[in-house]
Amino acid sequence: MEEEIMTIILNAGDARSKCLLALKSARKGEFEKAKEQLKQVSQSMILAHNVQTRLIQKEMTGEKHQVSLLMVHAQDHLMTAMAIRDMVEEMVAYAEELNKKMEERL
């Protein structure tokens, strides 16, 4: 189970890092690059979420596990990464819209 938990942590951490890279790309006006980085975020999030789902399904079928600090940490990483992803997607879209409006005025 620890290996599965580490998979969640690693993929959620990877997703969070890529979100911040996407935000930096958008800040530079590199919107296509930012969108590509956000696609990579989705891949990492899917991997982490799939492991989380498997662990939940195991528990629902009667396989009980003690809640460990490592599991709490993994859940924290995943939820934080999901929140950051949602915010960064909106911020990239907003920055791109704002950039287009500024270009139209010039």
TrEMBL record:
The keyword Lyase does not apply. One of its GO terms (biological process) is phosphoenolpyruvate-dependent sugar phosphotransferase system. GO terms for molecular function: metal ion binding; transferase activity. PROSITE patterns: PTS_EIIA_TYPE_3 (PS51095). Keywords: Magnesium, Metal-binding, Phosphotransferase system, Sugar transport, Transferase, Transport. Binds 1 Mg(2+) ion per trimer. This is PTS system protein. The lineage of its organism: Bacteria, Bacillati, Bacillota, Erysipelotrichia, Erysipelotrichales.
